[in-house]
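Can anyone check this?
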Amino acid sequence: MAWKLGSAATSGWMMALAVGSLLAGVDADAAPVGQTIWLKACATQQYVSADQNLGATAPLVANRTTVQGWEQYQVIDAGGGLIALRASESGLFVSADTNLGGQLVANRTTFQDWEKFEWVELGNGSIALKARSNGLFVSTDLNQGATAPLYATRASVGGCWESFTWGALGGGGGGWVQIWSDEFDGTSVNPSNWFANTGVHVNSEQQQYTNSPNNIQVSNGTLKLIARREGNNGYPFTSGRLESAGLREFGHGRVEARIKMPVGPGLWPAFWMLGNNINQAGWPTCGELDILENVGYSNWTSGALHGPGYSGNTPIFQQFYPSSPVSDWHVYRTDFSSSDIKWYIDGALMKTVTRAEVERYGPWAFDKPFFIILNLAVGGVMPHGYNGATTPHYGVPQSTADLIGRTPQQMEVDWVRVYQWR
C-alpha cells in the first residue's frame, strides 16, 4: 500500500479473451487460453522444457520427466484464432525462429508473427502446433539428436513426432497443492482467518476503517469491503480492512484472489502482504508484497515490492493491464520464492522480479511468512499522485466524493486461496 507514481496513459500488452477460430483446422475455443499448461511429446513421452540455464538461446527440448517451473507455459490469445506460449519461469515468449531453421526458443519479450501458433486438435487428447512464422508443424524430430530439440519443420502431421498431450496446472496439479482458502460462503467474516484492523491511519488516506457491517459484509458467497461517505473520527469516509496477521501466515508459495473493484479516481482497493515480523523489524524492513493495487482507473492495476532500500516510491513497480475493466471479475495472483516473485492476472504472467534485481537496491525481505491484507482505502498519497485532487479531500476529486455519497462503493472478493509447491 505504499505508493509509486507511474503513467496511467501508457498501456502494456493485454491478454484478450479467446475469439472464434478464423483459420481452418484451428479450434480456438479448445485452446486453454489464460491457463498455465505443460506439454508432453508423444515421441519421447517427456515434458517440453524451456530451460534457460542451458543458454539464452537454448532450444525447447522434450526431455524432462517431471513438471517444474521450466516446463510450464501460459497460453495467450494472440488474435485471429492464434495463440502464443509464454514460458512461466522466464516470462519470455516461445518463438519459431526462421533464422534458426524453425527452432523453438523461448527468448522473446513480446509476441509477433514468429511467436504465434495454431492450436490444432488431433483427437484423443492430443494436439499439434503450427508455426505462423513458416506455416510448418512443430516436431520432436528424433533425427535432430538424442535431446530431441523442437523445430517447426513439418508440412503435415505425420504421426507421433508432431503430436503432444497437454494438461492445465493449478491447485493440486503440477506440484501446486492448495493449503488454505476462504471462499466467503457464510454470512460473516471467519474470525479464525481475519480480523478487522480499525487503527490504521497512513498515507494521508481519508477513511476511518470500522468493523461495522456497513463496511464489512459477507453474503451470497463474497466478501464486500464498502466505502461510505460519512464522518467518523474526523475522517470524511468509512471503509473496511481485513488482515490475517497472527491467524493465517504463509511462506513461499502462491497466493491468489478473485476480485472485482469499483471505478472512480481516488478509490484505492488493494490485495497485499506484509512480513510477519513487522512488529519487531518495522516497515519496510519486514517486506511488503503488493499483489494488486488500483487507484480508481478502470483499465490498469499495479504490483510492487517494498523493503529496505526500495520502499515508498519504490523502483520495483509496474502497471498491469487486464483483459477487461477492473470492475469485472479477475484473478490476481503472486508466486514468491527464495529466488523470484511473479505477478499474474487471470493466469497470464505480468512480471517477474528476481532476487538479484531486488538486491541491487537492498536486502531481500521475502524469505519469511507473510500475512494477507484486503482493504478499500479512499484518497491518500498514491491516488493524489495520479488524480492531483486536493479538494474536497486529499486524493479524492469532487466527482468521486459525490459518487460514494450517492452509492457506497465496494471491493468484492469471491475467494482467497493459498498453494505451496510439493
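Reply from J.R.: I decoded it. DSSP finds four helices and 30 strands in the chain.
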